[in-house]
Write a structure and sequence with these properties.
- The complex is a heterodimer of chains A (about 70) and B (about 375).
- Helix content of chain A is about 80%, strand content about 0%.
- With about 375 residues, chain B is α+β, with helices and mostly antiparallel strands.
- In chain B, about 20% of the residues lie in helices and about 25% in strands.
- In chain B, strands 11, 12, 13, 14, 15, 16, 17 and 18 form an eight-stranded antiparallel beta sheet that branches.
- In chain B, helix 5 packs antiparallel against helix 9.
- Classes of the chains: A mainly alpha (about 70), B alpha+beta (about 375).
- At the A-B interface, helix 3 of A face loops of B.
Chain lengths: ~70, ~375
């Protein structure tokens, strides 16, 4: 993960900013997917999905579709 | 002492003695009563007003059992064991919004507000949220049987009581006229007393009017002893009623709006029932309250008082002064009872106290409660003797 993204994620965790957590973990997942690392992408997207689910964030649905499509979610 | 040695309690009030000391000072009896009196019945846990919106949750440790009441998307209230099915972590620590799901703070297993297990992150390894041995359908939250009546969330922890409508049919019928929407008064209409007594003493004191002129001299001006009557429904509830309840809340004669459609009985009448085991109700033509007795230990109880009105506008600012006056009045009345219940608790350490001699005329409602407790604790064989 890029250092700047890592720093932003830590800050979002510290601030308990759920919206930012969804965005940043999804960003990390996208980057890992582009790099061809499906396992790592699924790891980050799982975090994005959990925080989106908890917040009732509409992005949860799309994240669920992606994870399920990879056989990572029911 | 034996919890089955209750034959004197079950005699008619004129010959009976009260529950023996052990029912107030013994850990063993407290545990027995937890199961037979509080977990086998419908006990009050919390009130709906504490979780007004979907996604609101209130954790309650009820006699050591971690529970959480949750308002679902359908606006219904469910009660779950507040324990994650994974590693047994407490799920909800504080009252408030849990959001769209209940997420365990440990490994982030997520449950819907209906208790279904929704996701199990990384359960099959990093980024793999499924596993053949993880059957989400069988790993939802443990739901506790619950029912809401008069905004009180009742639970039958052991799941073995009759349906609430049957269990409470008698009192529901008695107060059918009050089956109306209740509107919580707001922050000043909720207060607590942390009292050093067994929860049953709060029930017993609430049941009877005998003590009113001595402990609550202020009532003599607007709700005198001679205006009261006993209420006894063996096996269900007991308490007292008054034919005259006319406090002056406002010098200009302002009054709260009444519950609609009440009969003339309630023009000046009011009733106060201990609904067994642990909820104390009061109804008047213009307001009502519930007191939930939270048994913390054999000698410690938290009394949660919640006051309700007949119309939603009463919670607004224009009623602030009257609402505060009413809440202050009840706070004062209930506070006057604290030294009594705490004194009776200390008195139960008197080795030679025999449970107490009842006044056949005045203590019927209290004896009614004692007999109910005794019947619940009495094994069938012993009860038949």
């Amino acid at each position: 993960m890029r250092d700047d993204l890592d720093a932003q994620l830590l800050a979002a965790h510290a601030a308990d900013d759920r919206g930012a957590l969804v965005r940043l973990y999804a960003e990390a997942g996208d980057a890992a997917e582009v790099a061809g690392d499906r396992d790592r992408a699924a790891f980050y997207l799982t975090h994005a999905y959990v925080f989106a689910l908890e917040a009732g964030d509409a992005r949860a649905e799309g994240l669920h579709v992606r994870l399920k499509g990879w056989g990572r979610e029911e | 002492m034996s919890v089955t040695d209750l034959s004197n309690v079950l005699k008619p009030v004129s010959q009976a003695r009260g529950l023996p000391n052990g029912h107030y000072v013994s850990d063993e009896v407290f545990a027995a009563e937890r199961d037979a009196v509080l977990f086998d019945t419908w006990a009050g846990l919390t009130v709906g007003a504490r979780l007004p919106e979907p996604g609101d949750a209130v954790p309650v440790t009820f006699l050591g059992l971690p529970l959480v009441a949750v308002r679902g998307k359908d606006c219904g209230i469910r009660v779950f064991q507040n324990t994650c099915r994974h590693r047994g972590m407490i799920l909800v620590e504080e009252a408030g919004k849990v959001g769209n799901v209940i997420r365990c703070p440990y490994h982030s297993w997520c449950y819907s507000l209906d208790g279904d297990l929704v996701t199990t992150p990384h359960v099959g390894g990093p980024g793999q949220n499924t596993h053949d041995e993880i059957d989400r359908a069988t790993l939802g939250l443990i739901e506790i049987r619950a029912h809401v009546w008069r905004d009180v969330v009742f639970v039958n922890v052991n799941g073995n009581a009759p349906a609430f409508e049957d269990y409470a049919a008698d009192v529901i019928g008695r107060w059918a006229e009050f089956e109306k929407p209740l509107y919580h008064g707001g922050p000043e209409s909720r207060f607590q007393f942390d009292v050093a007594c067994n929860w049953k003493l709060a029930v017993e004191n609430y049941c009877e009017s005998y003590h009113l002129p001595w402990i609550h001299p202020g009532l003599n001006s607007y709700s005198r002893l001679e205006d009261h009557y006993n209420i006894e429904a063996p096996g269900h509830y007991s308490g007292q009623g008054t034919l005259v309840y006319r406090p002056t809340l406002s010098e200009d004669g302002r009054k709260f709006p009444d519950f609609e459609g009440l009969s003339g009985q309630w023009d000046a009448g009011a009733e106060y029932l201990a609904f067994y085991p642990n909820v104390l109700f009061g109804v008047h033509r213009d307001h009502a309250y519930a007191i939930l007795l939270e048994p913390v230990a054999k000698d410690r109880t938290i009394e949660h008082v919640e006051i309700y009105y007949a119309a939603p506008e009463v919670a607004g600012t224009e009623w602030d002064d009257l609402r505060q006056t009413n809440a202050k009045m009840w706070y004062g009345v209930f506070e006057e009872d604290v030294f009594v219940v705490e004194g009776m608790q200390r008195g139960r350490h008197g080795l030679y106290f025999d449970g107490g001699k009842f006044s056949p005329a005045m203590d019927g409602p209290t004896h009614c409660f004692h007999a109910w407790v005794a019947q619940r604790l009495q094994p069938p064989a012993a009860a038949a003797e």
